[in-house]
Amino acid sequence: MADGEVFEELYEVIENRRDNPREDSYTSGLFEHEKGADAALEKLGEEATEVTLAAKNEDTDELVHETADLVYHLFVVLAAQEVELGEVIEELEKRRG
Fold first, then answer.
1. What whole-number distance in Å separates Cα of residue 37 and Cα of residue 20?
2. CATH code for the structural domain at 5-95
3. Where are the domains of the chain?
4. Residue 91 to residue 96: CA distance in whole angstroms
């Protein structure tokens, strides 16, 4: 898989779960939660803290694991706000100057 493809594929799955909810899907549950977007936002904050602690503790394996969780939950929040992944990529490209 080429660099970045896994992010695009993951984002497509997340958008699909948003648009076509499944009862057995954790991702769909984040969109349907009774607290609405708060559930995904709370998880994003939790994962950011876990990434910070893993880095502080110099635990590389845990840092990689928690970073993957952070990216996933960030993508859920972006999808909930209907922000396309391409918009974030474009912004990053602009910043490269």
1. 17
2. 1.10.287.1080
3. 5-95
4. 9
DSSP-derived secondary structure for 36-82:
THHHHHHHHHHHHHHHHHHHHTT-HHHHHHHHHHHHHHHHHHHHHTT
Count the helix, strand and coil residues of the chain and give each as a percent rounded to the nearest 5: 75, 0, 25
In this structure, are residues 66 and 50 in contact, taking their beta carbons and an 8 Å threshold?
yes
Cα separation of 69 and 94, whole Å? 26
Q: How many residues belong to the chain?
A: 97
pLDDT for 26-74, tens place per residue? 999 898 766 566 888 999 999 999 999 999 999 999 999 999 999 999 9
Nearest-angstrom CA–CA distance, 73 and 1:
22
